[in-house]
Structure formats: structure tokens, C-alpha cells
Design brief:
There is one protein chain. By secondary structure, the protein is mainly beta. The protein has a single domain, classed as Jelly Rolls (Sandwich), CATH 2.60.120. Helices cover 4% and strands 45% of the residues. It is built from 2 helices and 25 strands. The strands form 5 sheets. Strands 2, 3, 4, 5, 6, 7, 8, 9 and 10 form a 9-stranded antiparallel beta sheet that branches. The two termini are 29 Å apart.
Length: 314
């Protein structure tokens, strides 16, 4: 069955699914992706930059949101509660605490020292309570092996933090490595095997010797006329993935690659079920014989949950 959303997605040129830094800025947001801009139904991502003493008010509307510090810390007032976020120096320095804000609410974000904050959202039905997510409780996994090693901060994965629709994780890939590999997709409903999820990738790349880095990201079609992206990505870029085999994400040597994944879908169950690309899934069988990259974990992590080289390719 073809839906209105399918038609909107097909009408959007693939080159518009790579959004270079600044190209999706709007008002107070350095990045503002909502369902209307993306041409889909649920997933949103905003990045707000606050000067020292800055304040921003988020009106949640029909979406649930997570406020995640990228740099700096902040105070969040919402639903009659006050949450203090310690945050972090950068996405490369450690895991951050975060706040969940429900739909039909307001949240005031203030930062004495200033900072940059990701607002990850998803249209939802249930109104859950506002909550604080402590950094030490974020499950951290080391996935893959060899030059497919990467670190996944599962702060709002489907099985780690309760949301109605929203799924969000962070991935850090050491320089020279591949992540989001083998390529995988989640654009077809197959009970118990694959879920339908819209996905946003937001990238940051660690500088080295004062020089900016770069990475590459690939999305290949899973159906005729589907999403087809091969992009050089830099800090502040985003990629929209309504469908298709996504991966690899490639980190240039000498530069750690970070990306924030934001997902949501129409399924009754909030779950992340994927299918590997049939030409590349065999790579998993090589991982047990290889060590995990010794550069991982990238920082001291009290929440590290161990290795999962045979699990998902994120």
C-alpha cells in the first residue's frame, strides 16, 4: 500500500538528504529538522547554541524530546521540575547526562557558561513523565572488531530508556575505522525481523593539530528510486534516511568521527530491528577472530556494558 508519506519521500531529491552545516539553520537553531522539512512523519532534531547566560524555550507540541548536551551544561525547567545537566566538554570527552521532556509541555533551557545542545524529538501518542538520565547509567558498548570497531552510547536505545516513540544513540568511530557496517536497513515491516524507522544522522568530527577533519557516509537504494547518498560529511552536517541501506560511515585517519542517531517509526512496538545487506553481512563472521581496536573506549566509562561484536552494526 502506498501512503502519502511514501509519495513525499520519493518526491524529495536524494541530494537534499545530505544537509551541510548551516543549510538547515532556522531562527535560534544551528540545525532544525522536523517532519515537514524531512518529508516524513515523526523524527526531529534541533541543535541550539547558547551564549553564556543564554536561555531557550522549547515548546514540545505533539512530540517527546530529549535534551542532550553536546558541549557545556545547562539547567532545564519543565513540568514543575528543575534538572541540572552537568554536560561535557565535547562529544569526544565523555558520555553526557540528559533530560526527557514529554509532549504537550514547555522546557526552559538556560546555560551560565554557554554550550551546544541537541534536541532529539519524535511525534508520539503517550505522555510520559519528565525524567533525568544520569551519565553513569548510560550503557556503553564496544561493537565490531578490527577496523570495524566503534563505541555506542545507548542513552535512549529502545531497550535502555523508556520513551513512547523516540530512539536515540551516539556512535564514536576512531580515525581510519568504518562504522554503520555492514550496511543495514529498517524500511520494511517484517514482524520480529525488521521495523520501519525514519533516521537522522548528525555528525561532528574531532580536530587534530588544529585542523578540521572529514568523513564519508553512504546510503544505497533498497528499492527502485530509493535514497542514494554518497557524501563527504563534516562537523554540523546531517543526513536524512527515510529508507535504504545505510553505511558505511567512514572516519578519516587521525580524526574521530561522532554521530548522533535519532529514529522513530509508526510501529506499535518501539523496537530497532534491522536487516543486513546480503552482500556484506558476512563481515560479522570475521570479528570473533579479531581484537577490538585498543583505542576504545575513548574515555573512562563507568557505564560500559562490554563487547557486542556480533550484534547490531550501528
Amino acid at each position: 500500500m502506498t501512503t502519502d508519506n511514501d509519495e513525499r519521500v520519493r518526491d524529495r531529491p536524494s541530494h537534499e538528504r545530505h544537509l551541510p552545516a548551516g543549510s538547515a539553520a532556522d531562527g535560534p537553531y544551528a540545525l532544525d529538522i522536523d517532519p515537514k522539512r524531512a518529508g516524513w512523519d515523526r523524527s526531529s532534531l534541533r541543535v541550539v547554541e547558547l551564549r553564556p547566560g543564554g536561555v531557550h524555550t522549547l515548546v514540545t507540541g505533539e512530540s517527546e524530546w530529549i535534551i542532550l548536551p553536546l558541549t557545556g551544561g545547562c539547567t532545564v525547567h519543565t513540568s514543575g521540575e528543575i534538572f541540572e545537566l552537568l554536560g561535557r566538554e565535547s562529544v569526544f570527552s565523555g558520555v553526557s547526562d540528559f533530560v526527557y521532556v514529554p509532549r504537550d509541555a514547555h522546557a526552559q533551557i538556560s546555560s551560565g557558561a554557554g554550550g551546544r545542545f541537541a534536541l532529539a524529538g519524535a511525534k508520539c501518542e503517550r505522555r510520559l513523565p519528565a525524567r533525568y538520565g544520569p551519565a553513569p547509567e548510560v550503557p556503553v558498548e564496544l561493537r565490531g572488531a578490527g577496523n570495524c570497531s566503534r563505541q555506542v552510547n545507548n542513552f535512549a536505545a529502545a531497550d535502555t530508556f523508556d520513551c513512547d516513540r523516540l530512539i536515540a544513540v551516539e556512535v564514536l568511530t576512531p580515525g581510519g575505522n568504518w562504522s554503520s557496517y555492514p550496511p543495514h536497513k529498517h524500511d520494511e515491516y517484517r514482524p520480529g525481523a525488521e521495523s520501519v524507522l525514519e533516521e537522522i544522522y548528525y555528525f561532528e568530527i574531532e580536530e587534530n593539530r588544529g585542523r578540521p577533519g572529514l568523513g564519508y557516509h553512504r546510503v544505497s537504494p533498497s528499492r527502485p528510486g530509493g535514497t542514494d547518498v554518497l557524501a563527504e560529511v563534516r562537523s554540523g552536517d546531517a543526513v536524512l534516511i527515510p529508507d535504504g541501506w545505510h553505511g558505511p560511515s567512514i572516519a578519516a585517519p587521525g580524526h574521530t568521527l561522532y554521530y548522533l542517531n535519532v529514529m522513530a517509526g509508526p510501529g506499535e512496538q518501539r523496537e530497532w530491528l534491522i536487516s543486513d545487506h546480503p552482500d556484506h553481512g558476512w563481515i560479522r563472521d570475521t570479528w570473533p577472530a579479531q581484537p577490538v581496536d585498543p583505542r576504545l573506549p575513548l574515555h573512562g566509562l563507568s557505564g560500559t556494558s562490554g563487547l557486542s561484536g556480533q550484534e547490531a552494526p550501528r
